[in-house]
Design goal:
heterodimer; A: 438 residues; alpha/beta; Urease, subunit C, domain 1; TIM Barrel; 2 domains; 8-stranded mixed beta sheet; 6-stranded parallel beta sheet; 21 strands; globular; B: 341 residues; Rossmann fold; 5-stranded parallel beta sheet; 4-stranded parallel beta sheet
Chain lengths: 438, 341
């Protein structure tokens, strides 16, 4: 394998405590050497990438994406989803199991990782916690883990029954897997006339749409924390997916103070937008959990700045254009996010709200990698995987969904100002994205 | 964590809500908010002119223009009056209803709209069971779309004909309205507010003319947050207390088709919220009684009230034709007028 040198860039590796000008040598898919500018010992014959004026950081890790394969290739494939990931600076994505069929078996878990899928960056499957994600029968976690699953979740649906959730937490703890909960008490969000399609509040009333109450999230989070408390001797790891409400975040904060292994992620749309961004029935602003009230959005920002949030995750959920061009309450939930996460985080978390760049990058790489137990990722220490993102931290640009690499276009961020443009994304020593070769 | 970030939190700047691109077509009437008070006055005046016009002259205004009625829900009043209104102006109308069209075969609203446009429809009158459907149809076809009721959301022509009825009784002769036309008037809306597009339209329209709107009903059908949705709107759960303050009473039907598993004790509802002759005589002997229909005699109001001297229910129906003539005419001429201006 050819060697790569990234020369002259500002290396920011929060996990290794590095923030300075460095040259980096990548060889055989690993970080071989890091040195002050011009001081690499063995870079002969390597391809050189000039990163002068650019930031060099560990490749981003998105612990929550939907790649739609197997079964829904018209929305996205592993190839197109990972191409979008690479364009957004991600070198590792954790793929949720709500595919068709549901990924509840070692066979599908392996199928997602073979070279035939043509993934541009690493895909780490998250396996279903229960058979068919029906919330009843627990899967064989040891077998799923040895097939490559990095966590278990029934994402898209909650694990609703107390007894089942307790067993899931205990069984996952025995094999060292995290349990990722989609916190939605569907008894409060699904009605005989249809499901809630946006946050319950003045806006949903005005629009005449059935509302998704915040309690549907908080009651599940509080129940789960109770179960983790009861099982604390087994040290289960509970991770709350796409946290969206102030009360749920307060519960996570409290659980953490009590020393429990409870972590959470927040999606960019939940710390940036509110239910008012639904506008007049913009189906590209419809997702689950929905955009919340301003007070909830503000609580997400505060929790990120305070360090309570463990990871930024996109919940990248592609849907075909025709699937979203329907009546709001009939449109599927979900928006894409891989190509906007870095630009939004730098524009808002860093520039606007003054979160140091190292902390922003940590939320997008080192911390999610640690949550998923991805060894040698989320850092560029010598010996780590050569997963790198090189970006211009000052570049300002406008995102156009039609120019994206995802198969789908469903995003509320079309036309939004972004900061920070990816120049190269390198996955295990291979250039997975090069902004100038499009 | 540190004091600096606490300070910055209070002044956090966040992404603004983008301006609404609707309506795309100046002839559309999606919500009562699409009309300025001047536009509203013009419509009210024009409704009267059209109503009084020689039918044989009126018939030439939209002669042979094509208007499609697209109805996903059953309707008697709205459908018939839109049809009579369009025909009264000379337009050709065609009715597509969900039960006798390709909608049954799974054709989407977008494709149905594009099909009607390809067939030559110059405006579409849409009744749909999903909130927001009229916005989707307008966005996809860019035709003038007249919202004849979308789910639980809006029913602008109903609010306009309610206003015409209210003005005729409380402000006779006035058609040029302004922000104080209804100052001193309290209108109460009673019953199933949660599922009512009529309530949502009236609570947006009437306060703009200076009226106070009181919403009245049980918590299941009238959540507290309804009051914060529009200025000039308050909640009074005591029916009789609300009656004593009101000059106009708009009764609503319990929408069984939208209750969706909600448990509602109808006998208890009647005990607290049925408009009876006794209640009306005791608490609001002068009030005007309105109802968007269909009425269910013996449920939200008694037959005696429906047929009584204070009831203007059939007058509302009658006013619907005039209002809808003005609205249909606007739909097919607004773009031209905009072009000339």
């Amino acid at each position: 394998m050819t060697a790569l040198v990234i020369r002259g860039g500002q290396l920011i590796d929060p996990a290794a405590g590095v923030d300075g000008l460095r040259d980096i040598l990548l060889k055989d898919g690993r970080v071989a050497e890091i040195a002050n500018p011009g001081k690499l010992k063995s870079s002969d014959g390597a391809q050189v990438l000039d990163a002068t004026g650019l930031t060099v950081a560990p490749g981003l890790v998105d612990m929550h994406v939907h790649l739609r394969e197997p079964g829904q290739a018209h929305k996205e494939t592993i190839a197109t989803g990972t191409a979008a990931a690479a364009a957004g600076g991600f070198t590792a994505v954790a793929a949720m199991p709500n595919t068709a069929p549901v990924n509840d078996s070692p066979e599908i878990t392996r199928w997602m990782q073979v070279p035939d899928r043509a993934a541009t960056v690493r895909v780490f499957p998250i396996a279903a916690a229960t058979r068919g994600s029906k919330g009843e029968t627990i899967n064989d976690y040891a077998a799923l883990k040895s097939a490559g699953a990095v966590a278990v979740s029934d994402d898209g649906l909650p694990i609703l029954k107390d007894s089942v959730m307790r067993e899931v937490l205990a069984a996952a703890a025995r094999v060292g897997l995290s349990v990722i909960q989609h916190a939605e008490d569907t008894r409060l969000t699904h009605f005989t006339g249809g499901a809630a399609s946006m946050n319950l509040g003045p806006t949903s009333f005005k629009l005449g749409l059935r509302g998704w109450p915040a309690e549907a999230e908080t009651s599940i989070v509080e129940r789960d924390i109770r179960l983790v408390t009861e099982l604390r001797d087994a040290r289960p790891h509970l991770h709350i997916a796409h946290t969206s409400t102030a009360v749920a975040m307060a519960a996570v904060r409290q659980a953490r103070r009590s020393g429990l292994r409870v972590t959470c992620e927040v999606a960019p749309h939940h710390f940036l937008l509110t239910d008012e961004h639904v506008g007049l029935y913009n189906t590209n602003a419809k997702m689950c959990p929905p955009l919340r009230a301003a007070a909830d959005r503000d609580a997400m920002i505060e929790a990120i700045l305070d360090g309570v949030v463990d990871a930024i995750a996109t919940d990248h959920a592609p849907h075909a254009v025709h699937e979203k061009e329907v009546e709001f309450e009939h449109a599927p939930n979900g928006i894409i996010g891989l190509e906007t996460a870095l630009g939004l985080c730098l524009r808002w978390l860093h520039r606007e709200w003054k979160l140091p760049l190292g902390r922003v990058l940590s939320l997008l790489s080192a911390q999610p990698a640690a949550l998923l137990g991805l060894k040698g990722r989320g850092t560029l220490a010598v010996g780590s995987f050569a997963d790198v993102v090189v970006f211009d931290p000052q570049a300002e640009w406008t995102y156009r969904a039609t120019e994206g690499r995802s198969k789908s276009r469903n995003t509320p961020f079309d036309g939004f100002a972004m900061q920070g443009k990816v120049r190269w994304t390198i996955s295990e020593g291979r250039i997975a994205y090069n902004a100038e070769s499009i | 964590m540190n004091p600096a970030s606490t300070t910055s939190r209070r002044t956090l700047c966040t992404p603004p809500v983008p301006a609404s691109p609707f309506p795309y077509n100046p002839g559309s009437l999606l919500s009562v908010m699409d009309l300025s008070l001047d536009g509203l006055s013009r419509l009210l005046c024009r409704a009267t002119e059209l109503e009084n016009m020689d039918p044989l002259i009126r018939d030439r205004i939209l002669a042979k223009r094509r208007v499609a009625l697209l109805f996903y829900e059953s309707s008697t009043r709205t459908r018939t009056s839109f049809e009579l209104a369009a025909k009264g102006l000379g337009a050709d109308t065609t009715l597509v209803s969900s039960l006798s069209s390709s909608i049954e075969k799974g054709e989407t609203l977008k494709d149905t709209g594009l099909t009607l446009r390809a067939l030559g429809a110059e405006a579409i009158i849409l009744r749909h069971n999903a909130s927001g459907a009229a916005w989707l149809l307008e966005q996809e076809t860019r035709l003038p779309v007249l919202n004849a009721g979308d789910g639980m959301h809006q029913h602008p022509t109903q609010a306009l004909l309610d206003l015409r009825t209210i003005l005729a009784h409380l402000r006779p002769g006035i058609q040029n309205v302004d922000a104080e036309t209804l100052t001193g008037v309290t209108v109460m809306v009673v019953g199933d507010i949660l599922h009512s597009r009529v309530a949502r339209s009236n609570m947006l329209l009437l306060p703009r003319l200076g009226a106070k709107v009181i919403l009245c009903g049980p918590k299941e059908l009238l959540p507290d947050l309804a009051a914060v949705c529009a200025p000039g709107v308050t909640i009074e759960r005591d029916f009789e207390a609300a009656l004593r303050q009101s000059q106009v009473v708009i009764m609503l039907r319990i929408q069984a088709e939208r209750l969706a598993g909600m448990q509602l004790d109808l006998n208890e509802y009647k005990t607290h919220y049925q408009l009876t002759g006794q209640r009306l005589a005791t608490h609001a002997p002068q009030a005007l009684v309105l109802h968007p229909g269909p009425i269910i005699r013996g449920l939200e109001l008694t037959a005696g009230v429906a047929d009584g001297p204070q009831s203007a229910i059939l007058e509302q129906v009658h006013n619907g034709v005039a209002i809808r003539m003005a609205v249909v005419e606007r739909a097919l001429t607004a773009a031209m007028q905009g072009g000339r201006a």
